[in-house]
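Here's my example:
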Amino acid sequence: MSAPRPLFGYRKFWAHRLGPAPFLPTTRAEMDELGWEVCDVVLISGDAYVDHPSFGMAIVGRLLEAQGFRVGIIAQPDWRSAAPFAALGRPALCFGVTAGNMDSMVNRYTSDRKLRSDDAYSPAGAGGLRPDRAVVVYAQRCREAFGDVPVVIGGIEASLRRIAHYDYWSDAVRRSVLVDSHADLLVYGNGERAIVEIVHRLAQRQAIATIRDVRGTAFLGGRDGFVELDSTTVDRPGPVAPPIDPYAMVEEQPGAACATDAAPAPLVQLRPRPPKVPREQQVVRLPAFDVVKSDRVLYAHASRVLHQEANPGNARALVQRHGDRDVWLNPPPLPLTTAEMDALYELPYQRVPHPGYGGAKIPAYEMIRFSVTILRGCFGGCSFCSITEHEGRIIQNRSEDSILREIEAVRDRTPGFHGIISDLGGPTANMWRLACKTKEIEAACRKPSCVFPDVCENMGTDHGPLIQLYRKARALPGVKKVLIASGLRYDLAVKSPAYVKELAQHHTGGYLKIAPEHTEPGPLGHMMKPGIGTYARFKELFDKASADAGKEQYLIPYFIAAHPGTTDEDMLNLALWLKANGFRPDQVQAFLPSPMATATAMYHTGLNPLRSLKARDEVATVKSPQRRRLHKAFLRYHDPANWPMLREALERMGRADLIGNGKHHLVPRWQPQGVAVRGEGARAPRKGAALTQHTGLPPRPRERDVGKRRGR
């Protein structure tokens, strides 16, 4: 694997002499003020334009500006016609299209497929300002506006839909978004290296159809000079259906395709292994869309192979047939260096929303405006989460000096700053500067997680540099407190009691959110999360450090209902644990099958791609609305609206002993007047009604955790 070209090592395009724009223009009038006749690149996004490095549109726009290109932004255009997409004129080089910081379907719908009334990435939180499957719609409108302009799609929606994928909202396997959008190129993962290379080549008058060798991109077609391997020679799925009964009276169907579960089929015909060639000259052919859309085994197999080919140090190209065309995926992008991360995050962002929004607040910005990103990536590999799949499991770090400079910028330039940094983190709070002990091992590893089932012996766990960063950050003049709000990996934290002490004594504001996700080994194994014993160990360290500091502080745990591998008994045991520990969750989340996640493959197929599919590891799935409501009801066992449903379930499960009015019971026998089963005209009792027992915890504010929703 050769070293990549430095991100800022390109010769700048001629327009760099114009200097950076105060804000990237969003109207022709703003272009005129800058003296621009045209934009070189026009970015289309489903999010409001916030010129802050927590928003992908701003990062890509400012990065291309630093390369010398004139970049315009069309944020949340009306997609009902092509006219808004032509508002800035014909771009000289290309359109760049993204749904925004979230998949548009996750953004618009709840895990129960109900339309959300709000949108955290819109002015005043207004809903309805982006379409379903925004990447497809936006790309098609760009084509209608200027049919000869190249269209490049990217962002998390395109990234997670780059091959045939199960779509929860249509309950079907959909084609690659590249096919449906009619885009020229798809950029997946962290796209900075790819987009800079693509735009510079376009500026050199290279045709978009000839740009085929950029890592982290996908396109329709193929490449010469590669030896093709059938994916079944890379990871054998075994039979795609139960063995045929030799005594069954069934006519043979010559030439039939791989059968579904409903129709037995012969074993997969394995191709012989090709001669040995270097990995960089190999391409793995995944089962075609027409096959995986109806065959659960080969869908799970394709998901397993895709995740095995995710390490940029050893990943091979992938190809998948869609009708009469191939979708070709080049290997993943190479991680950014610390110097590149520093330069990227210190571009001239205004750190506020575009002034065109007036005084309208954008909730996602309000949440992060006093926070600082210190890293990218996550090596946790949780099966339900899209972070590892999108950003990779190799941690990309900023330097200490760069982070401290940004804290000073927040202090000096962000309106409303009162001395509190709300977060130093990223996808995870405490993976900064953690890495494999050697680059050689890191480049060869094909494991999906570095911390499951336990922390890998090759993974560093020294939190010393992070502790020093925290201390220097809170010592800066004008900074009163530095809080840590990103997701904390407590299985790593317990390896460093000094870190837990630092966190509890100086960086927790009374409550610390943490995500054990479940208590039972079945669900946790399918989530790739540590056992609840690790949580107990962390809580012990945290409580002791808080007490030593003379502080009364609490852990607020998050849990997931209805995750693949979860039974009704698992949820009952979780409810009993919650009651025994005095937790009464206000907000609960049900598993949402996001595109391409391993847990989504489990949900769709009922198989476990984390293990060899020859083992036929069947996974319990929760799909019916009734059972999903039941699993959520167990998390909110204290809500009277859920009691009738829970009583019925407990009786069915043979646990009627948990129904009663004693402390050891889960739900009482009596029902408050006017409260019925949740989901059937139920209403919760009025706030403050004396229907709950004291838990020993002070009341806490109800809040919507935008970051939590984004990570699912």
Q: What stands out?
A: The first helix runs from residue 28 to 34. Residues 400 and 469 are 7 Å apart (CA to CA). The longest strand covers residues 554-561.
